[in-house]
Amino acid sequence: MAFPRISNGFISEKIIFNEDLVLVTVNLNRKLPRIKAGQFVHLALTEYLPDKRWPESRVFSVANKTDGLSIKLLISRQGAFTSFLIDKININAKVSVKGPYGEFAIKENENSIVLLSGGSGISAFTAFLEAGLEAHSSFSKCKITLLYGARNKELLVFRDLVKKVQNNFPNFNVVFFAEELEETNIKDIIKGRIDLGVLDWKSEYKSRDYYISGGQDMINFFKEKLTNEYSIDLDSIYVDAWE
Amino acid sequence: MDYREQIKHLVDAFVEDRDKKTSSFIPGQDLVQYAGRIHDSDEIKYAIDASLDFWLTAGRFTDEFEYGLGEFLGIDNTLTVNSGSSANLVAFSTLTSPKLLDRKINKGDEVITVAAGFPTTVNPVIQFGAIPVFVDVQLGNYCATIEDIERAITPKTKAIMMAHTMGVPFELSELRALCDKNNLWLIEDNCDALGSKYNDKFTGSFGDLSTVSFYPAHHITMGEGGAVMTSNDDLARIAQSFRDWGRDCYCAGGENNSCGRRFSQQCGTLPFGYDHKYVYSHIGYNLKITDIQAAIGCAQLKKLPTFIDARRKNHEKIGNGLKRYEDKLILHTAPKNSDPSWFGYVITVREGSNKSRDEIVKFLQANNIETRNLFCGNLLRHPAYANIEHRVVGDLRNTDIITSNTFFIGVYPGLTDNMIDYIIEKIGEVLS
């Protein structure tokens, strides 16, 4: 992990998916150190004053492959802080960012991996997917399966990016899940929650590494299921968990 | 105008008044130093700014300095420490981390280095219980050859740790390739060479880790200070742990839960969720600097390019002036492909010269010209190192010649043309 750095910046874009989910782009005054896919930053909703303590902040995965000057953060409503961010913070609002942090970095040289992403948890993987589109090598060596679920298909907000990766790389497979799915003509989304049963457990899935990103309940659920039902070693399970 | 600004204005006035009283150089009467701190009112204003913040530990100036130095050298991670020697200690300790698995340096492993240099390049190796393996250096540039280093490699070799002595880069591209071929770590002790280049790339950026010193004799200063630098993020994190008591947590001072997992990790056999702030993954030290030191460093860093230019100009002028004595003196040179940011001008008195090193040095000292030996000469001849476990590959003939025949004079930016002319005149006088 590169040494974290602080930068002031402002919100340059805000895409509203629904009342509980937005994607913000933060433009920074000062370049952050190299950010590895899967790492996160602290976001504070005020400018940082260097002679004062770091203000109240929350952590968010960096959702794009970045040069360190422009970062995208997917924000879902959790509590007062994220509610304020979603409801009150608009374009040009001054913010500050500190990071990068975290070791939830996908080991690209592994033979094969499974990514489990629930809702806004996809943001821990999107930088990896974007990087893959740019540098073919990491994907060509690696068998990747993504199980990507959300409440409804509109909240599969990175579905286009994921499909693009799928179209470009035969080693990349995705299964989409939506808990609420009215339409019956959508072939590539399974109605319901993420289900490990879609994987062919007779093949090599037992030897893969598993990366789980989503809410704490989801992480606990799949961690337990993978270890108890599928005998996956705990060392092969990586979770993007914060307090 | 607020108080802070008023104070800064007073500093400007103070320095202007102080410098007015400084008389011009009088040869023979005024001391010609081998090194010295060069500053104006900026350094004092920065220091006062940091003092008025009264943050004291690493803060905004440390952040600014680490960022600026890293940007300058093109190295991703800069970790300030309280001296160049501490930087060497942290850099070497980093490579002993269990986190490096089979690449970790263990007690009894060998580390290739040279004996003609500064002791704290080698001390961490000895203190840890690894075995220093010494190779000789060349006279003139005072670097080891790639061939000698290659001959010293055995299955027990884990690393090469050497200094760019007096600012002269060793053959970095070739040594990097040799390290890669043999799966060895490379630590560049860059303490004497800030701003030197090899193949148009800054020294310090070739090694897995490198170190810098900010002691007043060095290229820039913050009084006491140094830095460990690396573009390897994993090594950076380990180095930070060794610097900061050995702790696993990487929160900056005054921060809490930067990792978001302060109370939810299983570390060793501690109870689950033991406060990560007090979990120790290494047996470390506390080697941090204060923000006041870093503030002085920020002001100095702005001047670094001009300091480097001045050192090169002064070195060239001295070299040109001494050319006529090449039959008696081995003049200071550098490997091709290198562009040194010289620390000093090193002179070795040739065997058979009409004057010895000691006679020349005493004469210069009597004429108020400071000189220094090439640090410790042959380290193995010092009492503290008489019984250390070590290995020598080949012989240390040149290292011994350096011990007896070598000294250096300054090239620091505080030297004026008049001073340099005076140095050359006096060397000519003693040799004639």
Report on this structure:
In chain A, a hairpin with a 2-residue loop joins strand 1 and strand 2. Chain A is an alpha/beta fold and 243 residues long. Chain A has a six-stranded antiparallel sheet, with helices on one face. Chain A is built from five helices and twelve strands. Chain A has two domains: 97 residues, Elongation Factor Tu (Ef-tu), domain 3, CATH 2.40.30.10; 128 residues, Nucleotide-binding domain of ferredoxin-NADP reductase (FNR) module (Rossmann fold). The model of chain A has no long low-confidence stretch (mean pLDDT 89). By secondary structure, chain B is of the alpha/beta class. Chain B has two domains: 249 residues, Type I PLP-dependent aspartate aminotransferase-like (Major domain) (Aspartate Aminotransferase, domain 2); 130 residues, Alpha-Beta Complex (Aspartate Aminotransferase, domain 1). Helices cover 36% and strands 14% of the residues of chain B. In chain B, the strands form three sheets. In chain B, strands 1-9-8-5-4-2-3-14 form an eight-stranded mixed sheet, sandwiched between helices. Chain B has a four-stranded antiparallel sheet with strand order 10-12-15-13. In chain B, strands 7-6-11 form a three-stranded antiparallel sheet, with no helix packed on it. In chain B, strand 4, helix 7 and strand 5 form a beta-alpha-beta unit. Chain B is flat, with a radius of gyration of 23 Å. At the A-B interface, loops of A face helix 3, strand 1 and helix 8 of B.
